[in-house]
Amino acid sequence: MTQVIYNYCSLLAWLDICRQTRYFDVRVMENKDLKNILADHTRQGELYTSLPDARVQCFACGHRCKIPPGKDGICKIRFNREGALFVPFGYTGGIALDPIEKKPFFHAYPGSKALSFGMLGCDYHCPFCQNWITSQALRDPHAVSFIEEIDAEEIVRLALRHNARVVTSTYNEPLITSEWAVEIFKIAKQAGLATSYVSNGNGTEEALDYLTPWIDLYKVDLKAFTQKSYARMGGILQRVLDTILSLHRRKIWVEIVTLVIPGMNDSAEELTDIAQFIHSVSPDIPWHVTAYHEDYTMKTEKEYTPASALLRAAEIGLDQGLHFVYAGNLPGQTRNLENTYCSSCGELLIERYGFSILSNRMQNGACLKCGTPVPGRWE
């Protein structure tokens, strides 16, 4: 019996991927635990430096772990083997063919498909994680995950075969598997594809230097705007803010998502702080406010975010001068806040329902009515 994670693959894509990958099944797992299997799917990393006494310092994420021989970093998947840092390589924990709007990117290649791939592990431990099966696989015994052996060339071939426009590293935290992502992205760029990260934004300048030549789009989860909340997840707020600023300076297209969680980050004050920060970087950065549903270990005042809370959050963003604010995860329940409008004349440009494009009235990346350019990445 083979067990693999697939997220919203079409049947044809699923069958195609089955033919191209080799799986580790339950019988293998009985004889070798997941940590050892993952250790066999590694190579020496690039985002680190050597320290005295055979220690290494990793630069893949903002934790900048200093790791003694035989030990792991906070992410539990980058480890020191005899004075060298070894990192994940040559597998996925899930592959899917998604609409790009699901990532969500609303200002990049609307209506196109993204081939999404992910690995296992994370540098955070968010109690509300919606991808905890893959992200917490080495921390939580209930997160039962399996891996698929595949090479970088085959991932790009799958993208091309299924007419994807973008390849996306997602499902776990892509920063901690950047060497594998760059291996794929180099081939994808040669094939004319765009590349993207769906990330918590806990970056470093070294990691962003490494990624910049190979990445086009970057979605950052700005999960809250207090250090108290970030400490609960295992992170530092300022590092995420610094990453957003650095991505914008590097001219990598950025979209920001805030999962609006009742009782945690949904106060008017905190949402205002988030909107003001985004505006200070650029009012043209899209802000997605999305609905939470109770998952993993976190229990909240309400089991899900009502549409009224998303409408209120979006109004705050617009009141603070953001040009593009979207309310997501509740198709048809948030008035016109799934659509893109011209920031100059107010013309409806892209009409959406959930992840579907109903109409696109843009022309050459600009408003068809007044000619104002719309920030983003368009064909």
Q: Top keywords for this entry?
A:
alpha/beta; 379 residues; disordered N terminus; globular; 11 helices
Describe this structure in words.
It is a single chain. The chain is globular. The termini are far apart. Helix 5 packs across helix 6 (178-190) and helix 10 (268-281) packs across helix 11. The protein is of the alpha/beta class and 379 residues long. It contains eleven helices and 22 strands. Residues 1-12 and 23-31 have low confidence and may be disordered. The strands form six sheets. The protein has an eight-stranded mixed beta sheet. It has helices at residues 11-20, 26-31, 34-39, 132-135, 152-161, 178-190, 205-211, 227-233, 237-249, 268-281, 307-319, and strands at 22-23, 42-44, 48-50, 56-58, 66-67, 79-81, 84-88, 91-92, 94-99, 113-118, 148-149, 166-169, 194-199, 217-221, 253-260, 287-291, 325-328, 340-341, 348-353, 356-360, 362-363, 366-367. Strand 16, helix 11 and strand 17 form a beta-alpha-beta unit.
Q: Could you give the order of strands across the largest sheet?
A: 9-10-12-13-14-15-16-17
The mean pLDDT is 91
Give the oligomer, counting copies of the same chain as homo and different chains as hetero.
single chain
Q: Tell me the β content.
A: 15-25%
The secondary structure category is alpha/beta
Computed over alpha carbons, the radius of gyration is: 20 Å
Uncertain parts: 1-12, 23-31
Instruction: State the total count of DSSP E strands.
Output: 22
What is the 3D shape? globular
